[in-house]
Write a structure and sequence with these properties.
five-stranded mixed beta sheet; six-stranded mixed beta sheet; alpha/beta; Hexokinase, domain 1; 13 strands; 532 residues; membrane; D-glucose binding; Nucleotidyltransferase, domain 5; binds alpha-D-glucopyranose; 20 helices
């Protein structure tokens, strides 16, 4: 058992206790009419048992708590009719997950043969994973979503790395301004990073005369024509900088360095999923899949080149190549995943409406916003925050309800949900919340967070099935959702079991830390050996 497992195990235990306690509390009779309504709704929606949302932890959700005349409702509990209705909307059961995984395998196959699939299945030109004996120091620039980092990665030749880095926030103005301003900002950050190295004492003149090699992790869909060239297919994750779509991201960056008279060569253009796969394989050689579950979501995996029938180049004797699936766009045709009216509202509010719809059900950029739309709706129908819902201006501000708030809410196991109160009253400015309001808010976060985890598990199940690796492999996963969102990994594992049965035991889901930065450095370092 890893430390992570232990932490989750502990959290699970606490959650079960908290859940059982709230169940106990719910058995008190208060409102006869409410109990009758609940009975009617629960009956209509069989087999959706209320237990799976009334109990804080999913693993404790097998007992059946369907309100009836003997299981009375307390005023501290949310209205069961509301809970059942919402659970019905957000639940993706095991059968549906299997259908989703099956459809994804079909789309993967289609995307390997043609460009006519929701899955872009981009050949990355990375044909080998590192062996762990590589050495040297390399620069990497990592643009993920919310953050942008400059790193210097030193490989120790024994699977270990040392990283010096600077981290920056990409402001909304930069994301939505001109491409030149965005890329100038990146170049300036690299310049300051190099100049701030106390040990090497790099001067302004050195920036011009010395050559610096750099791996660029650019976490957007690009049409990758070689290891250091890729044309941006379209922005997502809240970016819309002008004059970039259709352009080569490496040329855009290289031009910015030139404007600053810096002698930096971009030797590799890498997606964060590819970087995660490569860097995790550096220390865990059985890694065949890299996944990002953060601001956005995506996966890369190792495919046999003979299966990539649309790849017309000479693979230089290589047998395998990493494929960037761009699964964020999976099911953009809306054929298999059930969407709620809240998902459609979120989609309509994005700069890339009707695309990257899988990502919009899963990733950190959108979960809080789905939740906010549900809450706004329930305020309108009078089902939540009766005292202060209409008074909060914040609740109607797009993206004001952050995914990090959901994380905080799900982590609150106090009896009166005091931290949930802090989030709602102090951060969302909703005065006078009741315990029932807070429990309902928490249940909604659970439903949305759980659906995200289960859908991402369906994606992984599809990939390992397509690779024929059900007998065992490691999946390196980076990103704040997997790392920080309570129960996310356990919910994924449960869903993997529902889809793959016992084979799920052979698939190791492992936290990959800082995969994208290190991976870019590794690929830059080994460009000659690792690429076709
Ligand atoms: C978006 C990008 C993809 C990236 C993912 C995670 O889906 O299109 O390239 O890997 O976000 O950052």
């Amino acid at each position: 058992m890893s430390n992570n497992d232990f932490t989750y195990g502990l959290a699970t235990g606490i959650a079960i206790c908290a859940g059982l306690f709230s169940l106990g509390a719910a058995f008190v009779y208060i409102n006869n009419q409410r109990a009758k309504n609940a009975k009617a709704v629960a009956h209509a929606s069989q087999p959706l048992a209320l237990s799976s949302i009334a109990v804080s932890d999913d693993r404790a959700s097998t007992s059946s708590f369907v309100p009836n005349e003997t299981h009375k409702i307390s005023p501290d509990d949310p209205n069961p009719a509301t809970l059942v209705r919402l659970q019905h909307l957000f639940e993706v059961n095991g059968d549906k997950l299997s259908q989703i995984a099956k459809h994804m395998v079909a789309e993967m196959k289609k995307g390997l043969a043609t460009d006519d699939s929701t899955l872009k299945m981009i050949p990355t030109h990375v044909v080998r994973r590192p062996k762990g004996d590589e050495t040297g120091s390399y620069l990497a620039l990592d643009l993920g979503g919310t953050n942008f980092r400059v790193c210097e990665v030193t490989l120790d030749g024994r699977g270990g790395t040392r990283v010096r880095q600077s981290k920056h926030t990409v402001t909304d103005d930069l994301k939505n301004g001109t491409g030149a301003a965005l890329f100038d900002f990146f170049a300036e950050c690299v310049k300051q990073f190099l100049l701030s190295d106390d040990q090497k004492e790099v001067t302004d003149k050195d920036l011009h005369t010395n050559e610096f090699k750099l791996g660029f992790t650019f976490s957007f869909a690009v049409n990758q024509v070689s290891i250091n060239s890729g044309f941006l297919m379209g922005w997502n994750k809240g970016f819309s900088a002008s004059d970039c779509v259709g352009k080569d991201a490496v040329v855009l960056l290289q031009d910015a360095f030139r404007r600053k008279r810096m002698n930096v060569s971009v030797t590799a253009l890498v997606n964060d999923t590819t970087g995660t796969l490569v860097s995790h394989a550096y220390s865990a050689p059985d890694t065949y899949v890299g996944v990002i579950l953060g601001t956005g979501t995506n996966a890369a995996y190792v495919e046999k080149i003979e299966n990539i029938t649309k790849y017309k180049k000479d693979p230089a004797g290589a047998k395998d190549m990493i494929i960037n699936t761009e699964w964020g766009a999976f099911d953009d045709e809306m054929v298999v995943i059930p969407r709620t009216k809240y998902d459609h509202k979120v989609d309509r509010g994005t700069a890339n409406a009707k695309s990257w719809t899988f990502e919009k059900l899963i990733s950190g950029m959108y979960l809080g916003e789905i939740c906010r739309y549900v809450l706004v709706d329930l305020v309108k129908t009078g089902e939540i925050y009766i005292a202060g819902g209409t008074k909060s201006k914040t609740l109607s501000v797009p993206h004001a309800f952050e995914t990090a708030f959901m994380s905080r809410i799900e982590r609150d196991h106090s009896l009166d949900l005091s931290d949930v109160r802090t989030v709602l009253e102090d951060l969302m400015h909703i005065p006078g919340t009741t315990l029932a309001d807070r429990r309902l808010t928490k249940a909604i976060c659970e439903m949305i967070g759980k659906r995200a985890a289960r859908l991402s598990a369906a994606g992984i199940a599809a990939i390992v099935t397509k690779m024929n690796k059900l007998d065992g492999c490691t999946v390196g996963i980076d990103g704040s959702l997997f790392e920080l969102y309570p129960h996310f990994s356990n919910r994924m594992r449960d869903a993997m079991h529902e889809i793959l049965g016992f084979s799920a035991e052979n698939i190791v889901l492992e936290q990959a830390r800082d995969g994208s930065g290190q991976g870019a450095a590794l690929i830059a370092a080994l460009a000659g050996k690792l690429t076709a």
